[in-house]
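User: My collaborator sent over this chain with a note saying "see what the structure looks like." That's all I know about it. Can you take a look?
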Amino acid sequence: MSEKSTQDKVQDRDVALAALGDRVRMMRALKGISRKALSGNSGVSERHLANLELGVGNASFIVLTQVAHALGCSIADLTHDEARSSPEKILINAVLNGRSEAELTRARVALSELFGEAGNQAARQRRIALVGLRGAGKSTLGRMLADELGVPFVELTREVERVAGCSLGEIQSLLGQAAYRRYEKRALEEVIQRCPDAVIATPGGIVSEPATFKLLLSECLTVWLQASPTEHMERVIAQGDFRPMVGNSEAMEDLQRILTSRASMYGKAALAWDTSGKELPENFSGLLSLLQHARMPDSTDMTDNLLKHAQ
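Assistant: Without extra context I'll predict from the sequence alone. Here is the result:
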């Protein structure tokens, strides 16, 4: 049994190396440069490149970085089948390469509009979605905001449990992370269809699945509730949840890494409010004021309520 497992691993490795070699050769051909020229541009020997393209070279990350740079592509272009199977993706990547974050945002919005995935501007203003890590105040402020506006408050994690027919713990332990992300997207789709007006508190990891987060951005007015890592941790513990600290002496460092890694995605929200160092009443009035001054061209009943309550 162990011998067969080892053979399978060797076979998988050989297939992966052969596919990598094919993609390097394809990208080099696409650029119209010889192996000798690629060697000169990348600093990788011709012999090493030949082995790489034949699928017998065990290339290091540094070598792949050098080759990708010389070919004017990313390492992902060399390691993912998509780059090999779709010339259009290669051309689109070439257009996007080197663009600023603002330009990439405009490109994403334009593509969403082109394919009918941009959502309706007026409808988007009627659903407020709060994003951010645990302890940012999404549930507390979300309920208060929904009560003020007279609209439903939706805790998306509860909707995931409803769709799955079991608890979050059971989804994770029995079905896995991939299944949870599928249920999360389906739950969001149902909430959007069912609730034209709502305040939605989203799970902190919703940004981990691009398709789900893109749907949220298209269909809701998103607000990133920010807080310092220390306040995130203190608020979670104050709620009686000690899980982040149990058996983890590096809990704060882990939290800081998670916040750092997700910050750029949370930053795609239309608005942001920093809850750090403020009492609940101040945070609530500040959030209302932020929504009041947000640019909302298509006035709705919700917008009118926001303006009224923020005064």
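A starting point for your reply to your collaborator: The longest strand covers residues 221-226.
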